TrEMBL record:
Keyword field contains Transferase: yes
Keywords carried by this UniProt record: Transferase
Keyword set includes Cell division: no
Organism, as annotated: Halomarina oriensis
Name of the protein in its database record: Phosphotransferase
Gene Ontology molecular function: transferase activity
Coiled coil region boundaries: none
Length: 317
């Protein structure tokens, strides 16, 4: 999947318009992404070897734009070319928030974090599903592809994360499995779990544009909340003020049970740390900006795993 294919997507979609040569952007885990111009307007071309994946992403992006107040890129076209899926959108204005976030002043950073919380709460209110699992498309509808119980889906998500652990984290697995086995009963209602709702998938020009709606799945709202809190607040510059701003933003869009904090958040937070330590390619993720890598990245994940484990284990002593 190279720039020649991206250019063919553009010239096929806009045969009568002036198209620039595509330039590769920062590569994602499973997609190739290019930017170009069409009659001077900036656009983004995403390519994927599985066309169905980008069809789902396009459908969800349109649905979020139509049904919520979140700012998302306008979808220009989606389809298949030479056996590869493509998704063509307008390029969002502003800068990469992943690179800009830590440079914002404290007040502006709190405002951005609150925006993420509010956005997540709105998504939880708007998108509800029957059962749990990966989200797919049936006609024009977003549906759960293979529905299962919340307990089975939660176990699948955490086991997938544990299976991917590098050797430097593998010794923690027995403790994590014991801790998660004792999790309390939870509200099983299914809502959208936007896996990549984080500064690394957003652009910023004073307002946030939310990018990358690929690989959607469902979860309980509380599990999704704990994971998003972790990658928005803890991933970069954690502070009590940012954590408070995130949850205040969330509560502006939806409700949050009072017993979430003491009863279920520690378990969902542990699951979030487990599931984000390694990416879909089996590579240890690189938190923060500038990004940690190598031993520093492993140490970040281990420190958070041990701290979160200690919080869960203290409940059963």
């Amino acid at each position: 999947m190279d720039s020649a294919l991206a250019r063919r997507v553009l010239t096929t979609t806009f045969p009568e318009r002036r198209v620039s040569d595509p330039s590769a952007l920062r590569a994602g885990n499973v997609k190739r992404t290019f930017t170009a111009t069409v009659d001077g307007d900036a656009v983004v071309v995403q390519l994927h070897s599985d066309p169905a994946r980008l069809h789902v992403e396009a459908t969800l992006t349109r649905a979020v734009g139509d049904r919520t107040s979140l700012r998302v890129p306008t979808v220009r076209a989606t389809g298949t070319l030479d056996g590869h899926g493509y998704l063509l959108t307008d390029r969002a204005p502003g800068e990469d928030l992943h690179e800009r976030f830590t440079a914002l002043d404290r007040s502006e950073r709190r405002s951005v974090v609150a925006t993420f919380g509010r956005a997540l709460g709105e998504l939880h209110e708007v998108f509800r599903f029957d059962g749990h699992g990966p989200v797919g498309v049936d006609g024009d509808d977003l549906v759960v592809e293979t529905s299962r119980s919340w307990a089975a889906w939660f176990d699948h998500l955490t086991a997938t994360g544990l299976d991917a652990f590098p050797e430097a984290l593998a010794d923690l697995r027995p403790r994590i499995e014991r801790a998660l086995a004792d999790r309390p009963a939870a509200d099983h209602r299914s809502t959208l779990f936007p896996w990549d709702l984080r500064p690394g998938n957003a652009r910023y020009d004073g307002s946030v544009t939310f990018l990358d709606w690929g690989g959607p799945m469902t979860a309980t709202a509380e599990c999704s909340l704990a994971k998003t809190e972790y990658v928005v607040v803890d991933w970069y510059t954690p502070s009590p003020a940012l954590r408070e701003a995130f949850h205040d933003g969330y509560r502006r869009s939806t409700t949050l049970a009072a017993d979430y904090w003491g009863e279920r958040r520690p378990y969902y937070r542990l699951a979030a740390v487990v599931r984000t330590a390694v990416d879909s390619r089996g590579v240890v993720t690189r938190p923060g900006y500038p990004e940690r890598d190598g031993d520093a990245a492993v140490r970040f994940h281990r420190d958070h795993l041990e701290a979160t484990l200690a919080a869960v284990e203290s409940r059963t002593e």
